[in-house]
Amino acid sequence: xxxxxxxxxxxxxxxxxxxxxxxxxxxxxxxxxxxxxxxxxxxxxxxxxxxxxxxxxxxxxxxxxxxxxxxxxxxxxxxxxxxxxxxxxxxxxxxxxxxxxxxxxxxxxxxxxxxxxxxxxxxxxxxxxxxxxxxxxxxxxxxxxxxxxxxxxxxxxxxxxxxxxxxxxxxxxxxxxxxxxxxxxxxxxxxxxxxxxxxxxxxxxxxxxxxxxxxxxxxxxxxxxxxxxxxxxxxxxxxxxxxxxxxxxxxxxxxxxxxxxxxxxxxxxxxxxxxxxxxxxxxxxxxxxxxxxxxxxxxxxxxxxxxxxxxxxxxxxxxxxxxxxxxxxxxxxxxxxxxxxxxxxxxxxxxxxxxxxxxxxxxxxxxxxxxxxxxxxxxxxxxxxxxxxxxxxxxxxxxxxxxxxxxxxxxxxxxxxxxxxxxxxxxxxxxxxxxxxxxxxxxxxxxxxxxxxxxxxxxxxxxxxxxxxxxxxxxxxxxxxxxxxxxxxxxxxxxxxxxxxxxxxxxxxxxxxxxxxxxxxxxxxxxxxxxxxxxxxxxxxxxxxxxxxxxxxxxxxxxxxxxxxxxxxxxxxxxxxxxxxxxxxxxxxxxxxxxxxxxxxxxxxxxxxxxxxxxxxxxxxxxxxxxxxxxxxxxxxxxxxxxxxxxxxxxxxxxxxxxxxxxxxxxxxxxxxxxxxxxxxxxxxxxxxxxxxxxxxxxxxx
Length: 702
What we know:
Helix content: 40-55%
Strand order of the largest sheet: 6-7-4-3-2-5-8
Radius of gyration: 30 Å
Structural class: alpha/beta
Shape: globular
Low-confidence stretches: 631-642, 694-702
């Protein structure tokens, strides 16, 4: 049966090569299995008929029963449409067709009774249904209308090619007829019994064509649990393999590099920093490869922990590297490290896309002979030309921006597996951390360094623009600096840049030169112009920095005490929190002002209120996950989730996730490498789902 499920979708009756190509391109459906596991994103009650009189603005998909009273062609040539007037005795509605006009004109007749299904919209002053499903109300058709009908995500191109929701139903119905009764179970019987899960055949039939609300619920529970279970089992197995491989470089001593750096610190470490350093020390001395996630809110002192971890490597004769996702952040780390490392005499270099050829050659030579002890950089670090003499610690900042393959490339630069410390300033809720970083040990920096004051956050609307400018002038008069940030959303980039340019003009009018200096930073600038303006602000020579959210990660200007976020309703919670973290880095009281329009959606209101109520990044992250779901969670789209979730929702299904993880832990406690005969099905399923690929990455470097 696995072979049949791996068949090319073009061989399913009714599909063919052209539709197969389109399904693959638009939705990534290329095999029978892909289609079978392409689930509806919601369901509509098809047992109920609405009346035209009942339609209102809250109506989603509706089903009507009635007759067509007239059929007209409207417009000329390319803009032509077919309009059929439909009535059920309580009122009338237009059925509108822009495509397939000739075919629909032949199909539709005045007089017979039809069943019509679609989404109502308003055109002019009246309701209409655009491209609805239309079927003759025969006894056979009426008997086929189930209680629930799945609605499948689609695209305009698919609709234009006639691959509608009805076509999905037909394709999946054909496929289920072929495979049901022949499918091999993907979960062992003992797990199904213990967790009271429905059989696979039942689940797949009822996820697509539910017999009842209860049947749908049973199908969803089975498929969600299975998806989360195999994801967790994969992550836990990777960890299990790693923990059993004696592949870690042992750091036996703490010496001068660590001690000189530590003793010269201008402030004491927080209790959280000391605790995390002990955890790292234990890892690097264990003989096992360290794979640790360091989570810390903005300003919690992660960079210093990374510096001291690097000193442990140097004290044992090894090299370390720090990889950051952007040049801005790489520069930030480099300058912080220079400051901290000065007393120890350690040699640290910076390698980015902008490093000049001559400097690059010297850095490469120093890496090969070991005289460059710490290398800080961007993706440039994983280029083939970069070769270390004895790399033993890799620090990866904002890991969600690097995929699994990039990490494996970094590991391959060392004869032995380097210890890996992953850092993120994006607070990640527990359920998401268990999935994104389920194979890592987790440390949390949950204290702010002494002297850091919480940022005061307020919400103002456009009518307080004058108050805002007065407040900015007061702060600048006190010697402080101000960030003004504009949103940058891919879909409306041109519009956003226009807003930024207009905003910049308003600011320069309200804060004229030479009394005030305003710098500007955005993604469309040349790198040297961006660097010049950023430097102007960082060195205190500009009072105001107008920017897009490019400054979200890695800009450290302790003298900046005000963060103004324009159109704050267009940012997600985690992004707002990251931006707020750019201020409050000095000893002075800092402020974050959220500027919005007057009309806000309920969700936007909720986000803004939460931002004003708390500075706790983890509390905000939990709320963000609940409100927006993991797909939109900042950065996680390219996080290297082991596989796409077809049905489970990390925000809503956290109890199932915890249950699945506990089961995975229990199985691996008895059989760490899944070698027993009774676990053969689990191994086969991990292979089928391609969840054993990252295990290979680990074994390759162990």
